[in-house]
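On clarity, I found the account of how folds are encoded harder to follow than it need be. Since the whole study asks how a given chain folds, the encoding of that fold should be made plain. For illustration, here is how one protein appears when written out as sequence plus structure tokens:
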Amino acid sequence: MPLKPFVPEYIVVHLAKPEEAAENVRVSFTDYIKNVASSEIYPTWPEASLRANILAQISFALNRIYTEWYRSMGYDFDITSSTQYDQKFIKNRDFFDSVVKITDEIFNNYVVKQGQINPYFTQYCDGKTTTCEGLSQWGSVYLANEGYIPYEILQYYYGDDINIVYNAPVRPNIPSYPGRPLKVGSSGNDVTIIKRELNRIAKSYPYIPKISPINPVFTPAVKTSVERFQEVFNLEVDGIVGKATWYKIKFIYSSVKKLADLYSEGLKLEDISTQYSSEIKIGDTGDEVYVIQYYLAVIAYFDELLPVIAVDGIFGQKTEEAVIAFQEQFGLNATGVVEKNTWNTITDIYDKTLNDVLLLFPDIRDELYPGRVLSFGMQGIDVRSLQKFINLAADKNAYIPKLSADGIFGPATENAVRIIQSRNQLLANGIVGPLTWNKIISLSKD
């Protein structure tokens, strides 16, 4: 699911029940709400009733989009036209003037429970032929005639602990899948999200081990938890979070938290808080910028069409120009902003560069950051290289302990990394990302 709720520019409607073959229609979100409201309610109802109903319809649709309810089940649409599952939608129908006026005013407002951030699942029914625990459409008319304002009508049906979010941002509906599989050595916000969601799922499925700490690094412990999840839910057991596993985790997480339910646990801000920015651009500073610069500098060193830039953690004009040049060369939208697609491409090209350098310059390749975070429990040639450079650094720096270069990231290696980090103004977490790797290489050369 997206990190924070938004109003999509477009919504894809399936013109039948979810499992039935039918046309998918892509319409603007505002036209979708105008269609639903014109199909569900009467234009002659009191304005307070119309507003309350339209807010419920907006919130219902946003809940489906935010939880990726149907897409997480493998469907290629956001919502259906079936009132058995969703809201009534009639292709190419006309809209009522009163509905158009109100929808244009409030289309990016929605209902939440107090203390929660997810659009509330505002279940409703007509109140005559069908009844439910949510809003009664005809009942809302009675309340409006009694003098209730829209917020009071919604409170009557959904409880006093609701709020209205006003002027939510509008943006394209981009799928939450990060675009590349997550595996041991991956890092970033997507890893943090998966850890949190797996831990909540583990409360309901204890066979899945909980993960600690909640940080943005995909460790061997995360791999074990993913494998157990895949085993429980009949997925290929490889410990890698590809698209199928990503969306199955989303679906099970939404299910155990009842996010698409009137009685939901809901999501709090801390449930979706992230460590890294979703976009990095001119004026930004810090470790994220440093990593981008490092990757671009290595790529540019072996690609004469790209400018080589300083790796200083400051996203200035030269870095923006380098990002634009990279985007132009690899067919991306040349904005100078590093968003998900640009970051994935930078990472892919960096990995390709490492493989090419390995063939041409094996000695240099050994010094370059391996393109994945190294942490406790990992094994292999990259860990052995790390240990080799730590030992070279120890020859020149007495405070660094010597290691056995066995290719196993155990307690001794983690301790040595923490010592190096603490003595060099780096976060002493025992995890080797680009900053720590570069510092160790530097220390190994004095």
Remarks:
- The mean pLDDT is 93.
- The first helix runs from residue 29 to 40.
- Strands lie at 7-8, 10-14, 24-28, 79-80, 110-113, 124-125, 135-136, 162-165, 170-171.
